[in-house]
Amino acid sequence: MKHLITFILFTIFSLSYSQTSTLSVKESAEYKDKEKARGIMTIHTTQNGLTGIIRESKRDILFDVFDKSLQKTHSSIIESSKKETYVGEVVYGNEIKVFTVFSPKAKEREVYCHIFNIETGNHTKKKLFEVTVAKKRYLFFNRNDRQTSFSISPDGTYLAMATDNIYKDVNDYAIRVFDATTLDLLYTKSYQKHKEKYFKHNDIWVNEAAEVFVLGKLYKEGKREKKKGEANYSFILNKISKDDNKEIEINLADQHIQNLNITTTGNELHLIGFYSEKRTGKIKGGCNFIINSESFSVSSKTNYKLPLDVYEDLFGQKKGSKKKGKELTNFYIDYILEDSQGNSYLLAEEFYITQTYVNNGMNGGYWQTVYHYDDILILKFGAEGDLEWGRSIFKRATSPSYNAFVKNDELHVLLNSGKNLLEKKDGRTKVSKGWFESSSLYDIVYNNSGEVVYSKIQDNKGKTFYLPFYGTYQNETFIMMSSGRKKRQFMILE
Fold it and tell me: Which pLDDT band holds residue 487 (cuts at 50, 70, 90)?
């Protein structure tokens, strides 16, 4: 009887802990896919409310267009090849530009741009350039990062592309700038060309004057992150135009930084990331280097240790205060979002891989690989570059599971978790799914001051299961597609 009462109280508390989401929820009619797709490349909604979705199949690219009510109005299959690889995309207006690399031979590379017009449903393809690469080298580096090799100017006029041209005797890197409408090449510029020093690209941004800002690490010797306890690299910001090539070095002092990403506020570039006092891959806090883009100089450099809230969210109230200052590990930047006031939100997810040996007795055994997509770290930087607050989400998952967007200057984090979120005795809220537990779709909302509300959108049992990770936010609306091979459906959050 005692256990029954405990279970009932536990259930009541769990159900009452999460509120109903304030977002309005709509679902489209179900439709059937004629072709099986491996994954979603990109989704984009135009100002007129049309949604274009581009996906991959084994040998083709699938292009679908949906109207405002998410009824399919157009579908086309674009022939591709096993030798043609997707490397990124840019979006502006009614067009999605998808970039692919075709490798006809071991060292030959041809770069193409597929242009998908969502309004007309038209598709065109244009070869941008072809090059010869060194053996076993990639033309585009950071292939697993999000859009770090391509950038389109804020007015949609210029398209910039960063490539790796490393050969045995020289490290060489190139920037190509195209007219974004005609895709005509305007200029090509080599940068960071060294016989010995290696440059690791981080991010790229092009402005409305066709000037390209390229950020990355320049290693002093080899490719090791540390040497004699100190950082074996400097961060270099390049400002490249048709007629000039400038660079400035970002002084790290005693910091170790894995990556920096570029955000813009007015005529300033903010280079945002995480720093460590021990080594790259660890996090002591957030850092922000502010660059005046006109004078091309460092205006300020700020470092902020992780706030107490971050540790309390992860470890609980008592342990959090004891662990404050401890460096976190294995976090990778996923999103940098901006609100209407010029504030920036930096979101990173903990990722690591484990392997366990499964013994089948007399039949031997096998190694089982588990991918961990765990805690989420969130930092909010003000428009002036200062850290306003930091929070984290105590999460456990085995696949990419979340997406984030800013609506009405509030940060929304969408993910699937167990049916009932639990507030533990130590003050933590654990976001995970038990072995026999059904799942629910949640909207975790942070206001301007970092206060959080956990809201439930739906219980998934008996309903369509949606994938926030593959969603898109445009025109104050978030759209995501359901799972499944053949039958598909959309959820619209406004």
Answer: confident
**What mean pLDDT do residues 447-468 have?**
93
Find how far residue 109's CA is from the centre of its chain.
Answer: 26
243: CB partners within 8 A, 6+ apart: none
Beta carbons within 8 Å of 191's beta carbon, 6+ residues apart:
173, 174, 175, 214, 238, 240, 245, 247
Predicted local distance difference test score (pLDDT) of residue 18 = 53
The rounded distance, in Å, linking the Cα atoms of 372 and 374 is 6
CB of 217 within 8 A of CB of 161? Answer: no
Q: Which two structure tokens, joined as six digits, stand for 414?
A: 């969408």
Distance from C-alpha of 129 to C-alpha of 74, rounded to nearest angstrom: 30
201, 188 contact by CB (below 8 A): no
pLDDT in tens, 83-126: 888 888 999 999 999 999 998 888 889 999 999 999 999 999 99
Residue 356 identity (one-letter amino acid)? T
> Which residues pair with residue 20 across a beta bridge?
456
The full DSSP string for 366-431 is: EEEEEEEEEEEEEEEE-TTS-EEEEEEEEE--SS--EEEEEETTEEEEEEEEESS-EE-TTS-EEE
Question: Both tokens of residue 229?
Answer: 């306890």
Contact (Cβ atoms closer than 8 angstroms) between residue 314 and residue 324:
no
Model confidence at 454, pLDDT cuts 50, 70, 90, reads very high
pLDDT of residue 136: 67
Question: Within 13 A of 151's CA, how many CA atoms are on the CB side?
Answer: 26
User: Reduced to 3 DSSP states, what percent helix, strand and coil does the chain have, rounded to the nearest 5?
Assistant: 5, 55, 35
Q: What are phi and psi of 68, to 5 degrees?
A: -60, -35
Name the amino acid, one letter, at 13. Answer: F
What are the residues whose beta carbons fall under 8 Å from the beta carbon of 348, sequence distance 6 or more? 274, 331, 332, 333, 334, 376, 377
Q: In which residue are the tokens 């654990």 written?
A: 430
**Strands annotated E in 184-281:** 185-194, 199-206, 212-219, 226-227, 230-231, 233-240, 245-250, 256-265, 268-276
Could you report the per-residue pLDDT of 401-411, keeping only the tens digit for each? Answer: 899 999 999 99
Closest CA to 378 of 467, 272, 290, 264: 272
On the CB side of 380, how many CA atoms lie within 13 Å of its CA? Answer: 22
Cα separation, 238 vs 228, in Å, equals: 28
Dihedral over Cα of 433, 396, 312, 408: its sign: negative
Q: What is the pTM of this model?
A: 0.88
Measure Cα distances from 422 to 3, 431, 452 in Å: 18, 8, 15
Question: Of 32, 122, 127, which Cα lies nearest the Cα of 78?
Answer: 122
Structure tokens belonging to residue 446: 């942070």
Q: What is the number of helices (H) and of strands (E) in the chain?
A: 3, 41
Token pair for 362:
């007399």
